[in-house]
Specification:
The protein has 285 residues and is mainly α. The chain has one domain. It is 82% helix and 0% strand. It is built from 12 helices and no strands. 52% of the residues are buried. The model has no long low-confidence stretch (mean pLDDT 86).
């Protein structure tokens, strides 16, 4: 029961973060937003790691792979996600970003780490068709940006690649450690990249709402969500969390409707159904 609750909470936190991030990005530069989110969340994750796994340490050979994961899965992926979300709708972003497991499957097959079946490849094809339908809906409705959707798609690919490249590290470290250390390595890069905007930011003029959104993204959507998600994976395995990944998408799309008045065109509804079916087939091969 505790495992299911932790996964539901993680999925809900991540789903609501689409709306929180879009709201904060209207006032705060996306680069600054990403840097602040992961600086807060990373330090809190380190605190959780030291409490739950006080003996967790990195070997000399783990430093470079963890740092590379931080650049790929944190700095690149989350910057693309935040910029893309600031330009597109929360609904489009939630559906496109949901394809991350599919790109992980494709990369794993290219590298010879996966042996996809016809069902898996058909799922990949469906997901691509679904993404095209979602992008088309955004272009025809005027509620989304082609560039924003492409950035979200890039972020989804980076997250999928992050999952693939983290597999060797998961053989030597716990899921919580593999979630924490890449974020810690990504923080200096993000702070350096966002330093011009950080220096120009008028902190007092941002307002309480955007700061609350930043705090939510750092505490709930990063530290608590990552901890809860990794706890769930360690108890029931990665393959059985698929239903909770669907919940992330549902919450993200719903939050766009509730908080921003977004509407779902026929192409987006069809694209969402096709994407989720494709993910199901790809992951259940």
């Amino acid at each position: 029961m505790a495992t299911e609750v932790s996964l539901i909470l993680a999925a809900t936190f991540w789903g609501l973060n689409f709306a929180a991030t879009k709201y904060a990005a209207s006032t705060i530069s996306p680069l600054v937003l990403v840097a602040l989110r992961f600086a807060i969340g990373g330090l809190l994750l380190l605190f959780v790691l030291r409490i739950l796994e006080p003996k967790s340490r990195l070997g000399r050979g783990d430093i470079l792979p963890m740092a590379a994961l931080g650049c790929l899965g944190v700095a690149t992926a989350q910057t693309g996600f935040t910029f893309g979300l600031s330009l597109s709708s929360a609904g489009s972003t939630g559906l496109i970003f949901a394809t991350a497991p599919v790109w992980g499957l494709v990369l794993g097959a290219v590298l010879g780490l996966e042996r996809p079946t016809w069902k898996g490849m058909f799922g990949v094809g469906l997901s691509i068709v679904g993404v095209a339908l979602v992008v088309l809906d955004g272009l025809t409705s005027g509620h989304a940006s082609f560039v924003g959707d492409l950035l979200v798609l890039l972020a989804a690919f980076c997250v999928g690649a992050y999952a693939v490249f983290s597999m060797p590290l998961l053989e030597r470290h716990t899921p919580l450690a593999v979630a924490t250390y890449p974020i810690l390595f990504g923080i200096p890069f993000l702070l350096l990249l966002s330093s011009p905007q950080l220096l120009r930011l008028e902190w007092g003029s941002v307002g309480a709402g955007p700061w609350a959104a930043v705090a939510y993204a750092g505490v709930f959507a990063t530290a608590l969500a990552f901890s809860a998600w990794q706890r769930g994976i360690s108890h029931i395995g990665a393959n059985r969390v698929l239903v909770y990944q669907y919940l992330i998408t549902i919450v993200a799309v719903t939050s766009g409707i509730v908080f921003f008045g977004e509407t779902l065109g026929i192409n987006m509804i069809a694209g969402g159904i096709v994407i989720l079916l494709g993910i199901y087939l790809a992951r259940r091969q």
